[in-house]
Amino acid sequence: MAETVNNSESVQASAWLAALAGWLLPGAGHLLQGRVWRALLLGGVVWLMFCTGVSLGGHLYGFSEGEAGLLSYVFGFCDLGTGALYLISKAAGVAVVERPQLATSEYGNVFLMVAGLLNFLLSLDAFDIAAGRKR
User: What is the pTM of this model?
Assistant: First the structure.
């Protein structure tokens, strides 16, 4: 009985590690589990969407900005889904200034938010695979 509890705890720990790694670096959660193609394809999509959003003039929302009220917190949560991409970009000052003069800036904002939401889903997928709920 003690082995079963200990084994389920280690499975849960590895599942949380896969989810955290997948959130922090898109594709890393699947890569840790040896699912290289899935990591490259799905993680690559998140990276590509993030880079496309930045190149279209999108900006990352923060949690201390009052520019759009409550909605900016929702947008900031979506952007935070890209993990290290969000954190490094905010620290480096990349894509932090809104540029409404660009006709494509709103599209860029949407690309950034969808990249974050997709990465949240990829993190959950990595968790489910590591926990044995999914193949």
Answer: 0.89
